[in-house]
Amino acid sequence: MNTTLTNNSHPDSCPALVLNADYQPLSYYPLSLWSWQDAIKAVYLDRVNIVSTYDLKVRSPSTEIEIPSVVSLKEYIKPPEWPAFTRFNVFLRDKFSCQYCGSNEELTFDHLLPRSKGGKTDWNNVVTACSSCNVKKGGRLLKNSGMKLNQWPFQPTTEDLHRNGKNFPPNFLHSSWMDYLYWDVELDPS
User: Fold this and answer.
1) pTM of the entire structure?
2) What residues contact residue 162 under an 8 Å CB cut-off, 6+ apart?
C-alpha cells in the first residue's frame, strides 16, 4: 500500500499495542508492539480487531484508514508455560539486578556451580551478577566465596516474567494503551 499522511505526524511514531484475544498484552517486556504497517496488514487479513486508533490516517489511491493504536487478536494464542532459557530472560527473572549486591550496572551471568566444576548453564545454576561480583566470586563455589545471594535461581514461568516485566515500563506509552497496561507513568498525550 503506497500511503500518504493526512496530518503532520509521521506514522513511524505510531506503534500498535497488540493484545491477545483476552485483551491482555502478548508481552510486557518487551511490550508487544507492531509497526503501523504490520497492524494495518493484520486488519486487512482479518486477523485482528481495531480497539483504538491514533488521530492519524494513511491513504492509498483506493482507501483511507486511521492508524490503529491498539489491536486485539481474533484468535487466542496460549502463551507457553515455560519461557526459553536466554540471557535476557535470566536478567528479567532477576529484575535486572545483581543477585549479590543489587547493582544494575554491567550485568553478566554467574554460574553458582562453576562450569569448570561441572556446572550447567540452566535456570537453576545461573544468576544475574554485576561484573564486579562475578569477578569477586570467580571460579569458587558460593559457599567458599563469602558472598550471599539475594534470591536463589529458579525456572520461572512465562507469567513470572510478565509480572517482572511490569516493573520496567517502556519510554513510550500512548494514552490509548493504559486501559490494558499496569504502569503509572506520564503519558504521551498524542
Assistant:
1) 0.72
2) 27, 28, 29
